[in-house]
UniProtKB/TrEMBL annotation:
Name of protein: Squalene/phytoene synthase family protein
Top-level taxonomic group: Bacteria
Species, as recorded: Paracoccus fistulariae
One matching Pfam family: SQS_PSY
Length: 253
């Protein structure tokens, strides 16, 4: 097994994180690629069956394999787990929490309010960004800053996905998307104010994606409803955002 399967999965299914990986030091890229490929797999697991119990069984398989890796047991040959083990070893056990956070997706229940969405984002996007940032040299004192950045970026990505989430029963049952967007903007601003806590080596891990602030601002001002409308990101805008990150290591806006 090689990194090829992981790289192709992240390139095609998570282009923003893939672009950020290319900004990281080459020695760190395999670890990021395998982490993000794992994230795709555990995010997809709850949707591989319409039956909640079967969906949870699929997710449980990943949880058990990660827990075994944390105990020092090499995983079975697998396109994602094998290169993940090669890059992370027993530290892959730390990713159990990322998988556990996806259990609620198996039930296909909408979020009751904005605070429920934030809790989910903190556990999923927040946990993922911290794992990546720590691998790239972020110290413990930067954890709060990373958490704020992840909250802002995670809410934005969740709002972008709302048109697909609503039909699956995973959208917003109550609460106001505009309030969520404002919370995200506040989190991004707070993270930017403490950007010096994060070393430049970790910039790739904290990259939020292109045109996050304009998108959130439009929602906060109620100029668009993310449940029905989206702002398209052009290839030029995505490339320009990657170029700025590569030239400046500036992950904050």
């Amino acid at each position: 097994m090689t990194l090829d399967a992981c790289t192709e999965a992240v390139r095609t299914q998570d282009p923003d994180r893939f672009g950020a990986v290319l900004v990281a030091d080459p020695v760190d890229r395999p670890a990021l690629i395998t982490l993000y490929a794992l994230n795709l797999e555990i995010a997809r697991a709850p949707f591989q069956s319409n039956e909640p119990m079967l969906a949870e069984m699929r997710l449980q398989w990943w949880i058990e394999r990660l827990a075994e890796m944390g105990q020092g047991r090499e995983p079975p040959l697998h396109d994602v787990l094998t290169p993940l083990w090669d890059c992370w070893g027993r530290d892959a056990g730390d990713f159990v929490d990322l998988a556990e956070a996806r259990r609620r997706d198996c039930a296909r229940e909408p979020f009751a309010d904005g605070s429920a969405v934030i809790g989910y984002i903190d556990a999923t996007a927040g946990g993922l960004m911290w794992c990546a940032a720590r691998r790239l040299g972020a110290p413990d004192r930067a954890r709060d800053t990373v958490a704020l950045q992840a909250r802002g970026a995670g809410i934005a990505n969740w709002l972008r996905a709302l048109p697909q989430l609503q039909p699956l029963g995973l959208g917003l049952a109550g609460g106001d998307p505009a309030q969520l967007a404002q919370i995200a903007l506040t989190a991004l601003t707070s993270a930017a104010a403490h950007h010096s806590d994060v070393p430049k080596t970790a910039a790739a891990a904290l990259y939020p994606g292109p045109r996050i602030r304009p998108f959130l601002t439009q929602i906060a001002r109620k100029k668009i409803d993310p449940r029905q409308q989206q702002q398209e990101i052009t290839p030029f805008q995505r490339r320009a955002s990657f170029a700025l990150l590569a030239m400046t290591n500036r992950w904050w806006r």
